[in-house]
């Protein structure tokens, strides 16, 4: 209880500091919000989205490397993203600085990718949240606030893409550590129209370190991939936990695997997870 009170006091003090003008006025917010949708200045020429694509999910650990104590280096994670050769990538724990260059925009620009970003809260080094990178233009973007706990701000960001069979929704999220909150977040996602209308891919750090109500609900509510052997992604140096997952509805995950290059084992405490997906008619 004392620890909870100390955490709540620190949160109040942080909000009061922002309100008192100790940070740029543009960053005075405490609620999750959608704050970036951008196309690259020079987009690569790619064929239209067909019936097959490769997607990935990657927790970039605030750009701080394997142990989280290093100096933020977005280029390190950016190199790993370039290794993936994925069509759509969901990123978690992305930090955009409060001042100076926007490292997320710079990374997307360097890779020639479209980008959408939703902030969950203000981190001491900037806005912290989830992003979606894509080879194709993002036809529509929306956000779902999943902050059911006062101590854990969480959000899901959804991007929509046109393909020859209709529309595809890609939803990226980072779920809570607590079992009860995580289950409420999953129920909110499964009941959301974006996961019920079109073919949908749900990607992210599900914090699924063990089987629980949340993971059972996901497996029952969304089509399972080709087997139940989720690839381990955490910790990156020697992964044993399958925290990062890719679920599908109205689509089929043909192949699912972890990207375990030498660079990936050093750039974050999570390995990226990739999936080859087939879209149905």
Would you write up a description of this structure?
The structure is a single chain. By secondary structure, this protein is an alpha+beta fold. The protein has two domains: 1-30; 31-279, Deoxyribonuclease I, Chain A (4-Layer Sandwich), CATH 3.60.10.10. Helices cover 22% and strands 33% of the residues. The protein has six helices and twelve strands. The chain has helices at 2-19, 74-84, 103-111, 179-190, 213-221, 264-267; strands spanning 33-38, 52-59, 88-96, 114-123, 126-134, 140-145, 155-163, 166-174, 200-205, 244-249, 251-258, 273-279. A seven-stranded mixed beta sheet has the order 1-4-5-3-2-12-11, with helices on one face. A five-stranded mixed beta sheet has the order 6-7-8-9-10, covered by helices on one side. Helix 2 packs parallel to helix 3 and helix 4 (179-190) runs parallel beside helix 5. The protein is globular and about 45 Å long. The chain starts with a helix and ends with a strand. The relative contact order is 0.16. Mean pLDDT is 85; it is low at 1-29.
């Amino acid at each position: 209880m004392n620890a909870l009170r100390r955490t709540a006091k620190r949160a109040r003090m942080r909000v009061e500091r922002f309100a008192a003008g100790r940070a740029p006025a543009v960053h005075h917010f405490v609620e999750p919000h959608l704050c970036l949708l951008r196309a690259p200045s020079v987009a690569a020429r790619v064929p239209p989205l067909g019936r097959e694509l490769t997607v990935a999910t990657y927790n970039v650990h605030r750009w701080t490397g394997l142990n989280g104590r290093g100096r933020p280096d977005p280029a390190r994670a950016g190199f790993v993203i370039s290794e993936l050769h994925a069509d759509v990538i969901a990123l978690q724990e992305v930090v955009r600085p409060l001042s100076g260059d926007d490292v997320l925009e710079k990374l997307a620009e360097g890779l020639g990718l479209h980008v959408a970003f939703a902030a969950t809260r203000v981190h001491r080094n900037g806005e912290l949240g989830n992003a979606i990178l894509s080879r194709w233009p993002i036809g529509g973007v929306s956000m779902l606030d999943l902050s059911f706990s006062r101590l854990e701000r969480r959000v899901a960001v959804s991007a929509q893409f046109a393909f020859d069979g209709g529309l595809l929704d890609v939803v990226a999220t980072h779920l809570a550590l607590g079992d009860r909150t995580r289950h409420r977040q999953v129920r909110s996602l499964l009941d959301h129209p974006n996961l019920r209308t079109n073919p949908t891919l749900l990607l992210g750090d599900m914090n699924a370190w063990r089987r629980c109500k949340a993971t059972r609900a996901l497996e029952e509510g969304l089509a399972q991939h080709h087997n139940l052997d989720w690839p381990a992604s955490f910790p990156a140096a020697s992964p044993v936990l399958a925290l990062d997952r890719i679920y599908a509805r109205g689509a089929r995950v043909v192949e699912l695997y972890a990207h375990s290059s030498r660079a990936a084992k050093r750039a974050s405490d999570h390995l990226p997870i990739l999936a080859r997906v087939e879209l149905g008619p």
